[in-house]
Amino acid sequence: MNGFRALIPELLRRALRLDPLATLKRRGLVVGENFYMQNGCVIDAWHCCHIRIGNDVTLGPNVVILAHDASTKRTLGLVRIAKVSIGDRVFIGAGSIVLPGVRIGNDVVIGAGSVITQDIPDGVLAVGNPAAMIGTTADYFARKQAEMATVPCFGEEYTLRAGIDAGRMAEMNAKMKDGVGYIV
User: Fold this and answer.
1) pLDDT tens per residue, range 140-159
2) 47 catalytic, yes or no?
């Protein structure tokens, strides 16, 4: 029994390594409620204490958030660090990069592959490299809601979490033809 007790601290350390978000939080990352980070995301591990993420935020796959810039290290001897703030109800699309010193407001959508080099105000849709504001999120969601009335929409039974089978997958693709659809 004593041998097992001695293993408990090591088992806990290993379990925490399996949860990178828990490690980042221990290092000072502040994350609000309903935060979702898809596979491959990188949040600046050594400077995460300078990063604040609000409520209801989703990071698409392979998003990178940096709070440091090491380009100054060799010449100036120091690494530049800067705070990053991401507001509430923000979606950051796949492969986007958020650079040090950026503030992203509330109710923002960042398009896939964008590089955020400057502050993004509340209620904005921003895309590109460098990211540029191309509209409001209110207009964007109004367009998508109108589109939903003309394309197929699929319920929970069509998701992996509900155990979708090959027949339903084929049905979805047939209903979408060459277009789009929406799923819960």
Assistant:
1) 999 999 999 999 999 999 99
2) no
